[in-house]
Write a structure and sequence with these properties.
four-stranded antiparallel β-sheet, alpha+beta, 12 helices, 2 domains, seven-stranded mixed β-sheet, 11 strands, 38% helix
Length: 363
């Protein structure tokens, strides 16, 4: 049951934006009547997009773990949390008589990853974005509007995490992380609509004209294509086929087979000209090892006292003249596993990376 209260502010009524009440309300209806949560894969999005419907108080009160979080954060029940959130987003508080009636108040939680801004690529491979959508009434007794709260990063205390989220205007990001997340949120919404067959209203300016869903089946040939691209066609055909069969077998076992999968991923790069480096390296090392990888001398200009990841722009500039790009396999450690790809293949390599769960990154 939806119950919302009036506020004094204008509606989110841009008819050209996909971040609109009509789209949010259609998504809410799907979550309420069909499935209260789902995950799905989108092209060029790291890991699955997660969409959930949560309800005050039933999603919180009565669960031992959540009750501990409520008490730890100084609340007796989740209605008190909801009123704190409503205070932030300019929605009238829930009155005691409504609480006594144990009315339910729903909101949406959408989560996804993006690449980080350039300035923090060394510290973070991906940014985890959380968007919370609360419905309300604007100059109406009927639900006709919504408010968005936002927080980036993972959190282990859900109550604390949502309380730390901020009220945002999707069109006015305050920093580069928000700018990336807010822009991608529009594409994510389009992907959600495509996944659950929500009809997007006419006149909405779509963020993308492409099919956003992953519709390729992963086969041995998928892994063969990946290895051939990251090796620039220089891997032994018999070894490629052998490795691809092993990779497919591990892939079908799912995430529980993580150690074996990682071992198989490293096996790929045994057959590829690559450079396994500590996170700290000198420009002379880069010139030597990249020259070895591409089979010709590579020299690049760089400012004095420039090392490690600060060298990437200068390396890439030199490689770009050869239609090449330096990339890395994500080791999840404090080292790089570099390889060189044809510039024209980078987009496909990243798409196959998402498809096969072999994590490679641009630098």
């Amino acid at each position: 049951m939806k119950n919302f209260f009036s506020n004094l502010f204008g509606r989110n009524n841009d008819p050209k934006s996909i971040v609109s009440f009509d789209v949010m309300d259609a998504l809410y209806s799907h979550l309420y009547y069909v499935e209260s949560q789902f995950e799905f894969e989108m092209k060029n999005v790291h890991n699955a997009v997660s969409v959930n419907l949560f309800t005050f108080p039933t999603s919180f009160d009565g669960y031992e773990e959540t009750q501990k979080e409520l008490e730890k954060n100084g609340f007796k029940n989740s209605y008190e949390v909801l009123n704190e959130l409503y205070k932030k987003i300019n929605i009238d508080p829930i009155t005691p008589d409504k609480i006594e009636q144990e009315l339910e108040f729903d909101y949406l939680h959408i989560q996804f990853y993006t690449k980080p801004p350039e300035r923090i690529k060394k510290e973070m491979k991906y940014i985890f974005h959380n968007f919370y959508i609360f419905f309300c009434c604007t100059n109406s007794l009927e639900t006709n509007d919504f408010r968005i709260m936002y927080k980036f990063g993972h959190f282990f205390d859900y109550i604390k995490g949502i309380l730390e989220a901020e009220f945002i205007d999707i069109n006015t990001p305050k920093n580069d992380i928000q700018e990336i997340g807010f822009n991608e949120f529009k594409t994510i919404l389009q992907g959600i609509c495509q996944y659950v067959n929500i009809e997007i209203p006419e006149g909405v300016e779509l963020p993308s004209q492409e099919n956003l869903l992953v519709d390729e089946e992963v086969t041995a040939e998928t892994f063969e294509e990946f290895i051939n691209l990251v090796s620039r066609g220089n891997a032994d055909d018999k070894l490629v086929k052998k490795q691809s069969k092993k990779l497919l077998k591990n892939f079908k076992k799912g995430p529980d087979n993580y150690p074996e999968s990682i071992e198989a991923h490293w096996g790929i790069f045994d057959s590829v000209d690559c450079w396994n480096s500590d996170w700290k390296f000198d420009p002379e090392d880069a010139e030597y090892f990249i020259s070895e990888m591409i089979g010709q001398d590579l020299n690049f200009a760089y400012p004095e006292e420039t090392y490690s990841h600060n060298l990437f722009p200068y390396i890439q500039s030199a490689l770009e003249k050869l239609d090449l790009e330096l990339m890395t396999y994500d080791t999840h450690g404090d080292n790089y596993l570099f390889f060189v790809a044809n510039k024209s293949d980078v987009g496909r390599i990243l798409a196959l990376s998402e498809l096969t769960k072999i994590e490679v990154n641009q630098l």
